[in-house]
Amino acid sequence: MKRRSLLAIAGVTVPRRARAAWPAERPIEIIIPFPPGGGVDQMGRLVGLHLPRHLPGARCVAVNRPGAGGQIGFETLFNAAADGYTIGAATNTAMHAIAIERRPRYRPDEFTLLANIVDDPGGFWVRPDSPFRTLDDIRLAARGRPGEIGVGTAGIGSDDHMLLLAFEAAAGVTLLHVPYAGTAPVQRDVLAGTLPIGGFNGSEALTLLRNGRIRGVAQGGAERWAPIDAIPTFREGGFEVLGGSARGIAAPPGLHPEVTLQFELAFTAMLASPDFLRDAEMLSLPMRPLVGRAYRQMMAEDYAALQRLWQRRPWRE
């Protein structure tokens, strides 16, 4: 069915001028709350390349607004005009964790959530010669040496840190959290043998795994991600633990329903496009396409789960 017919069925109308002007009037800015080169940046720029092909008249430009673990970019997006010309990358863990531990100038449940693109499972990674082959090996060792076995993460409040806390709670043990400024130094110290366990995402582990430089103990998805399907999930290891980084696209609060619907239709088409899927595979992006209501439900469940975790294990250190 044609786009206009779908809008009519939905019973959504706006003034004629808005229909005529948007989105051709000026470029749509995509706010990326993290520095260039990372997973969120890759996802945001891929959207900027492909979305205009499914949103007639649109042009997109990606703008990095890093700082404070993503807070600056999230605040920029939240407080932008809700006119359809500003959208941005939204991540489940960072965006939610910041709002739980402090009071930023945004409220996660008020963003206009458009579509999830990626769900990059977290995981525990070790050197090939590590004695830790299973999660039970880690649990038993931690019982004998509580607070001594180091697990490196990309920082306090990161999705890697949340995965560590969830495992500690499920296993009834205490490990030693070693926060770093990003994933690269975590990988460096795991490879050097000075850090027993690294906590980072599956896409970040992929090259090292293929080269035989690290071994995976467990991955944090609900099911195994195909490129690393030899590695069991935490659930398969006997621990009710999920963790990773869901990365999607949101708009400011109060986006008009017709504009929201047009974005959702465009994202639905983009996420099914062979060209988009080919480019996502080339970037080793773990896809989890969710549009509209399904995305909002996933984010609400994640926010609630992190709030419960905060009540049990506040993560300020």
Description:
This protein has 317 residues and is of the alpha/beta class. It folds into 2 domains: 3-119 and 245-312, D-Maltodextrin-Binding Protein, domain 2 (3-Layer(aba) Sandwich), CATH 3.40.190; 121-228, 3-Layer(aba) Sandwich (D-Maltodextrin-Binding Protein, domain 2), CATH 3.40.190.10. Helices cover 41% and strands 20% of the residues. The chain contains 12 helices and 10 strands. Strands 1, 2, 3, 4, 5, 6, 7, 8, 9 and 10 form a 10-stranded mixed β-sheet that branches. Helix 5 crosses helix 12 (293-312). The longest helix is centred in the C-terminal third of the chain and has 20 residues, at 293-312. 44% of the residues are buried. Residues 1-20 have low confidence and may be disordered.
Instruction: Look at the structure and give the mean pLDDT.
Output: 91
Fourth-level CATH superfamily of the largest domain = Bordetella uptake gene, domain 1
The CATH level-2 architecture of the largest domain is identified as 3-Layer(aba) Sandwich
Helical residue percent band: 40-55%
In N-to-C order, the SSE pattern is HHEHEHEHEHEHEHEHEEHHEH
Radius of gyration: 20 Å
Oligomer: single chain
State the CATH topology of the largest domain.
D-Maltodextrin-Binding Protein, domain 2
Low-confidence stretches: 1-20
Strand content: 15-25%
- The coarse silhouette is globular
Total domain count? 2
What is the CATH class designation of the largest domain? Answer: Alpha Beta
Q: Count of DSSP helices? A: 12
